[in-house]
Design brief:
Blueprint: H1 4-8, H2 14-36, H3 51-86, H4 91-94, H5 96-122, H6 126-166
Helix pairs in contact: 2-3, 2-6, 3-5, 3-6, 5-6
Bound molecules: fe (ii) ion.
Fe (ii) ion (FE2) binds next to helix 5 and helix 6.
Length: 169
């Protein structure tokens, strides 16, 4: 997931550096999401948790929604700026319009996922809400990675190799 993260480590470009930090935040976000509900990886539900734990889990979900939209909006925009400004002539630049449309599509899908997740949570199936959110997001991001961000990572490597000799990126 987040294929371009590794490519970013070797560059001094400010856009790339910011992308790397956002990439780390997204990875941490998914890790937190996965571990927030202790029943994520078993067949137990919220009836096995005490009232305090359940209230905490339910209460935290909206902040995950907020962070998710915030993180994705910024990260996608910065990716597009980087492609437009620094990857001219490379495949990622030629596919920028489609990549932008894919980002918009993801944000729209995230809106639907959040709505569905909130409904599940409202039914007091908070364990299921966390499972649904994590599974939906990892699937969505993996698909996007395969279609666009793996190519972006290749282009960053290509640019980095070229620019490295000029010592500017
Ligand atoms: Fe992307």
């Amino acid at each position: 997931m987040f294929a371009h993260g590794e490519a970013i480590y070797n560059s001094s470009s400010d856009n790339l550096w910011q992308l790397m930090k956002e990439h780390q935040r997204l990875t941490t976000f998914l890790d937190d999401l996965q571990h927030n509900c202790i029943n994520q990886h078993n067949q137990l539900d919220c009836s096995h948790c005490d009232r305090g734990a359940l209230a905490s889990c339910r209460g935290q979900l909206p902040s995950y929604f907020h962070d998710l939209i915030d993180l994705c909006s910024i990260h996608f925009y910065r990716e597009e700026v980087l492609i437009a400004q620094e990857l001219q002539g490379l495949a990622a630049h030629q596919n920028l319009r489609k990549h932008h449309q894919a980002h918009a599509g993801i944000l729209k899908k995230i809106g639907g996922i959040i709505g569905e997740c909130a409904l599940i949570n409202e039914k007091k199936q908070t364990d299921e809400a966390y499972r649904f959110l994590y599974k939906s997001l990892t699937q969505l991001f993996a698909e996007h990675d395969a279609e666009f961000d793996e190519e972006l990572a290749r282009c960053i490597h290509e640019k980095h190799g070229r620019v490295n000799s000029a010592q500017t990126l």
